[in-house]
Write a structure and sequence with these properties.
By secondary structure, the protein is an alpha+beta fold. It is built from six helices and 26 strands. One of its GO terms (molecular function) is DNA-directed DNA polymerase activity.
């Protein structure tokens, strides 16, 4: 095997497939990158038994062949090379990598032991705009659960129906829902539960194009864009019936300026080091909202904001870390609406725009 490829193109390809390398696998081959050179094309593959990634790039191939090399070592080498042509030669037991005045000789693994890329024939698939989908995933990604005991809560529910994309995530303490219109909807409703980490990784890749194909089989989800294919194990189970948590009306509604609210919350929460609770006191008559926090060790803080209030006066306490996640998700918006039913009922933040966003948060004890 012998081929030459630019350092920048190679680095980009490795950054794509590295997401699929096994981190602490007892099988060395799962920590490797499979490379195949043929017909002016390099094919890279990784597989950690949960996800598989394949990516193709053009190259000057003099001798076809295939090999498996340590992904971590290869990535560290390539990112430190000068921006010049990189030549690979060998492959059966060792491979020589040369670039400018640098030369490396790496031990390789047998390509015959590589499991091969999974053959996936999606039962259903849909094409969606990458920019819009990426924006939506960023808004709900942090709400997915980090607890492995309930895998379904580590996923994001994706539905496409009636010209609308909807993403939903929950960790049982909070719920995030975002909707957006889509110009080329599916002929019939599309529904899939995708790992939040996978969704985020796919839509953070440098090889994304204008649109992405998402397909589902009984056990897998496959993402296809450009010359990249990303296959992930599908999360099994029934997603929680989140719609029953959304009330039809509210007792109190507050319209909040996002920038002013973010700054006030940041100042008040400085005191809440050991207690993450921030109290919201809504004064309907005075059209005010008071934020306050207290800590036995540090003291107290408070700030008053002028707001538009509908309904009755009401108080509620919320975890400010979770509120900040909501504020960050709507950072591009000017206004945010807070709807409340009572001090022991969930608070609901809403923001409307190109992407409509709803964030439900369970209260903490006053």
């Amino acid at each position: 095997m012998k081929f030459t490829v630019s350092q920048s193109s190679l680095m980009k390809a490795l950054s794509v497939v590295s997401k699929g390398m096994g981190a602490n696998s007892t099988l060395p081959i799962l920590s490797g990158i499979y490379i195949k050179a043929a017909d002016g094309t390099l094919e890279f593959q990784t597989n950690n038994l949960t996800i598989s990634i394949r990516h193709l790039i053009p190259a000057n191939v003099e001798e076809p062949g295939e090999t498996v090399v340590s992904g971590k070592v290869l990535s560290n080498i390539v990112k430190n090379l000068s921006d010049a042509a990189v030549t690979f030669e060998g492959g059966e037991r060792t491979i020589e990598i040369s670039c400018d005045k640098s030369t490396f000789r790496l031990n390789t693994l047998s390509a015959g032991d590589w499991s091969g890329f999974p053959e996936v024939n999606p039962e259903r698939q849909i094409e969606l705009p990458c920019d819009l989908l990426s924006t939506m995933v960023d808004k709900v990604y942090k709400v997915t659960s980090k607890e492995s005991s309930r895998p379904i809560l580590q996923g994001i529910l994706l539905t496409v129906e009636d010209n609308t994309i909807r993403l939903v995530a929950t960790d049982s303490f909070r719920l995030a829902v975002c909707d957006a219109s889509v110009e080329s909807p599916a002929d019939e409703a599309f529904r899939a539960i995708v790992s939040g980490n996978v969704f985020h990784d796919v839509l953070s890749m440098p090889t994304l194009e204008d649109s992405i194909q998402i397909g589902i089989t009984e056990s897998q989800v496959v993402f296809t864009f450009g010359t990249t294919t990303f296959v992930s194990r599908r999360i099994e189970g029934n997603f929680p019936d989140y719609k029953q948590l959304l009330p039809a009306s509210c007792a109190t509604a507050v319209d909040i300026d996002v920038a002013e609210f973010a700054a006030a919350l940041k100042r008040v929460s400085v005191i809440a080091l050991t207690n993450a609770s921030v109290r919201f006191d809504i004064d309907a008559d005075g059209r005010l909202m008071k934020l306050s926090a207290s800590s036995p060790e540090q003291g107290e803080s408070s700030e008053i904001m002028n707001t538009d209030v509908e309904g009755q006066s009401l108080s509620i306490a919320l975890n400010y870390h979770y509120v900040f996640d909501c504020v960050n998700a709507v950072s591009g918006s000017k206004s945010l609406r807070l709807e409340l039913q009572g001090s022991t009922q969930p608070g609901i933040f809403k923001s409307n725009g190109e992407v409509n966003y709803l964030y439900l948060l369970m209260p903490v004890r006053l």
